[in-house]
Write a structure and sequence with these properties.
Aldehyde Dehydrogenase, Chain A, domain 1; globular; Aldehyde Dehydrogenase, Chain A, domain 2; 7-stranded mixed sheet; binds nicotinamide-adenine-dinucleotide; alpha/beta; 5-stranded parallel sheet
């Protein structure tokens, strides 16, 4: 497979257009955005820079397609057929999509292959299969009336997604929204639009009617804001940072009160007790749970809480694994952590490391930029010992930096774990079954892993509590975001 990757790694990428109403068109203004590859810092291609007028055209195309009914009123079987075909086409083009995505955002190819095309295809299949298994209800009303609860598509859905795992996260939103019969306008991140534009082409090839999926590329503060403020979008589904999530809520309040679902960041605690079943395995999974994709994973276990009695021994194990990870060329199948997605993000990560040192944290390994001679953006996996009050222990870095914090007993573990504005993921490692259940109940997070970290099944919801968000991607629960309930109250 490495041969095939190597033949694709330098393929020319044509300048990209917007995909609106089934047509590839430039932005009205003719403006473009440079796409720089984080692998070598070189220009890869350009994106069309959509302005509010372009966004309006995409929303009008979405509304027209919804009202026409060629998708929204198509039978579940017809919609299922198209979504399954999309999944098949993603599989057919998996390698090409994975390499294109890696050149765009720097994720190591071994992870991208699983987490991007393979995951997206699985998500399309999951929701395709679910379409004809969810339907309305008859309420247990008095016998002289009939209360019918209809489930209807909401209409036009806007999806705004981030630069890490664009296909996976894009599919988490597009697939259930389309399955439910909606039309979608998608805005990818500036740093990871290429695979989603390609996905739009595959959707059209699979027979998705014109206008049902449009893709508008551009800057968050312009293209994204225009979507947020648009008066004819019914639901806005977002994955990204907290500050942008707040803006989207404001846009909704200032426009048409569109429903806004937020999947935001995290500072997830990974709690290791001395009675963990296998400390070597726990150390390995903990290291990979933060350093894969160079820490650019929303659920990354970025705070490692270790019971005092094993603190030194365990921290050394994790630091040794971090120091031995194979870094560098994201298109090498053996690479375990690829590039930082952009120069700005690299500088931010390095800044956090400097600040931690200035605040007195103890650096166990890493902390530096590497492979600068390639022109790419690479940073060593970095491990600090620190106290919970330090900046690094509180703020989401979204980079390859792990904070290790010692604790003494369950109560202190829970106190430190929950002392954060976030509540996305977490883990607990213990052989004590009762303790495991107490911790699952006690940790305030959308996901609690026990004796593992990570998990990818489509059948389980992913969402946060507190300032990590208010919605769920994945599972049948994701349909709730894209469906309206309507009551028909019939006198008999
Ligand atoms: P970001 O918030 O900067 O950008 C996300 C998207 O919002 C991009 O498409 C961007 O163009 C757009 N955007 C930016 N400003 C906007 C504005 N003013 N109005 C409308 N749209 C705007 O996030 P990012 O840097 O792309 O991604 C990293 C963040 O995403 C991290 O915080 C990470 O934890 C989070 N994330 C969360 C999950 C989850 O499932 N909870 C998954 C992946 C990433």
């Amino acid at each position: 497979m490495q041969d095939k990757i190597d033949t694709l790694r330098n393929a020319e990428v044509a300048p990209q257009s917007l995909f609106i109403g089934g047509h590839w068109i430039p932005a009205e203004s003719g403006q473009t955005i440079d796409v720089v590859s984080p692998i070598d810092g070189r220009l890869l291609t350009t994106l069309a820079d959509a302005a509010p007028g372009d966004v309006d055209r995409a929303v009008r195309a979405a509304r027209a397609s919804f009202d026409k009914g060629s998708w929204s009123k198509a039978s579940p079987q017809e919609r299922k057929k198209v979504l399954l075909k999309i999944a098949d086409l993603i599989d057919t083009h998996a390698l090409e999509l994975a390499v294109l995505g890696v050149r765009d955002n720097g994720t190591e190819i071994s992870m991208a292959l699983k987490a991007e095309p393979a995951s997206a295809a699985g998500t399309f299949r999951y929701y395709a299969e679910a379409i004809d298994k969810i339907y309305g209800e008859i309420a247990p009303t008095a016998s002289n009336v009939l209360g019918l609860i209809h489930r209807e598509p909401v209409g036009v859905v806007a999806a705004i997604v981030p630069w890490n795992f664009p296909m996976m996260i894009g599919a988490w939103k597009i697939a259930p929204a389309l399955a439910a019969g909606n039309s979608v306008v998608l805005k990818p991140a500036e740093g990871a639009s290429l695979t989603l534009l390609r996905l739009a082409a595959l959707c059209a090839e699979a027979g998705l009617p014109d206008g049902v999926l449009s893709v508008v590329t551009g800057r968050g503060a312009v293209t994204g804001e225009a979507l947020g403020l648009h008066m004819d979008i019914d639901v806005l589904a977002f994955t990204g940072s907290g500050p942008v999530g707040r803006r989207l809520l404001e846009y909704s309040a200032r426009s048409n009160l569109k429903r806004v679902y937020l999947e935001l960041g995290g500072k997830s605690p990974n709690i290791v007790f001395a009675d963990a079943p296998d400390l070597d395995q726990a150390a390995k999974v903990s290291a990979y749970g933060i350093f894969r994709n160079s820490g650019q994973v929303c659920v990354a276990g970025s705070r490692l809480l270790v019971e005092k009695s094993i603190h030194e021994e365990f921290a050394e194990k994790v630091a040794a694994i971090a120091a031995s990870m194979k870094l560098g060329d994201p298109l090498d199948l053996k690479t375990e952590a690829g590039a930082i997605s952009s120069k700005a993000q690299l500088m931010k990560d390095l800044g956090y490391a400097e600040q931690a040192l200035a605040e007195g944290a103890h650096l166990r390994t890493g902390g530096k930029r590497i492979l600068e001679e390639t022109g790419g953006y690479f940073m060593q996996p970095t491990v600090f010992d620190l106290s919970p009050s330090m900046t690094l222990a509180r703020e989401e870095v979204f980079g390859p930096i792990l904070s290790i914090i010692p604790f003494d007993g369950e109560d202190e573990a829970l106190r430190i774990a929950n002392a954060t504005d976030y509540g996305l993921a977490s883990a607990v490692w213990t052989s004590n079954l009762s303790r495991a259940h107490r911790m699952v109940r006690g940790v305030k997070a959308g996901v609690v892993h026990v004796n593992t970290y990570g998990g990818s099944d489509n059948s389980v919801p992913l969402g946060g509590v507190k300032q990590s968000g208010n919605g769920h991607d994945k599972s049948l629960h994701a349909f709730d975001k894209y469906i309206d309930l309507k009551t028909a109250w019939i006198q008999l």
